[in-house]
Amino acid sequence: MLDLCNAPYPVCDGYASCLLGPEFYTQGNLPGSGRIIVQTLTTSKIQLSFLFSDLTAAGGTFSIVWYEPGCAANTRLDVDGKVVATESQALGVFQRSAQVNVAGDHLVTYQATTHATYLLKVDVTPLND
């Protein structure tokens, strides 16, 4: 189900545009950035899947940051725009994931200079020990 991500959710001394889970997706345009919240119940892997259309320029660095609740810690991933474009064209989707270790609301941010329209889907995989 499409979430337009146009509501202010307070998180980490700022706001995110939506609470996105496996049953929802959102859409947008790049270049630009996004701030979403993903909820987990345990240590989990959070995967972002971007389906691009009208990709006209690879751009520079595509950055994704996964924050632990409260934003005291984070995992940052920077991917070269050419890699994003190549993977997207070869696989049909650009995906990246990171492990979060604390249950709760996780701010996930992304920023890119890639020129494209996108659909974004989130998957959460619990990692039970």
Order of helices and strands: EEEEEEEHEE
Mean pLDDT equals: 94
* Shape call: globular
Radius of gyration: 14 Å
Instruction: Examine the coordinates and then state which fold CATH places here, giving the name of the CATH topology.
Output: Jelly Rolls
Structural class: mainly beta
Question: Can you tell me the residue ranges where pLDDT is under 50 for at least 5 consecutive residues?
Answer: none
Give the helix tally.
1
Query: What's the β-strand tally?
Result: 9
| Amino-to-carboxy terminus distance | 31 Å
- Helix percent reads under 10%
CATH class: Mainly Beta
Strand content: over 45%
Number of domains: 1
Let me know the largest β-sheet. 7 strands, mixed
CATH architecture: Sandwich
Task: Give an account of the 3D structure.
The protein is mostly beta strands and 129 residues long. It has a single domain, classed as Sandwich (Jelly Rolls), CATH 2.60.120.380. Helices cover 9% and strands 64% of the residues. Strands 3, 4, 5, 6, 7, 8 and 9 form a 7-stranded mixed β-sheet that branches. The termini are far apart.
